Amino acid sequence: MKDKIELKKAYDNKGNEVLHFYVHCDLGTLYLHTWTFSKGVYMYFKDGRSVDELFSYRYTCNKRLNKVVDRLPGYIRFAKRCERDEREWLAAREKEAETERAA
Questions:
Q1: Rounded distance, CA 33 to CA 55, Å?
Q2: Residue 35 in contact with residue 68, Cβ under 8 Å?
Q3: What is the rounded CA–CA span in Å between residue 71 and residue 14?
Q4: Which pLDDT band, with edges at 50, 70 and 90, does 86 fall under?
Q5: Euclidean distance between the first and final Cα of the chain, in Å?
Q6: DSSP 12
Q7: Which helix (DSSP H) or strand (DSSP E) does residue 31 occupy?
Q8: Which residues pair with 22 in a beta bridge?
Q9: What is 53-75 written as a DSSP string?
Q10: What's the number of CA atoms in the CB half-sphere (13 Å) around residue 93?
């Protein structure tokens, strides 16, 4: 399954528009980051983008979009690593509880 980046437009507690970024991957849907609303960023990601497209992205004069594209791969790696670690921890915890019940 190819990883796909999607965003949701929402409002923060002060009424300002924000963009919530998510990645859909083999681990499920993972939250990445929230940025303040920018029309250029919203227009680029509104229909979703594959992670492969980020690596072939050609930089433009839109500095905010460039920053988002620069940072997303790191956020994706971090979110996946945290999710894997949590799943491993839960599996170990479950196995430990199982052995305690058996004893």
A1: 18
A2: yes
A3: 25
A4: very high
A5: 41
A6: -
A7: strand 28-36
A8: 6, 31
A9: HHHTPPP-S-HHHHHHHHHHHHH
A10: 6
Residues 6 or more apart whose CB falls under 8 angstroms from that of 49 comprise: 4, 5
Distance separating alpha carbons of residues 39 and 43, to the nearest angstrom: 6
Residue 33 and residue 21 in contact, taking contact as beta carbons nearer than 8 Å: yes
State the sign of the Cα–Cα–Cα–Cα dihedral 19, 48, 67, 52: positive
Query: Strand order of the sheet with strand 17-25?
Result: 28-36, 17-25, 4-11, 49-50
Give yes or no for a contact between 27 and 81, defined as CB atoms under 8 angstroms apart: no
Residue-wise pLDDT tens digits, 24-54:
999 999 999 999 999 999 999 999 999 888 8
**Could you tell me the pTM of the whole model?**
0.82
Residue with tokens 């058996």: 102
- Token code pair at residue 18: 């924000």
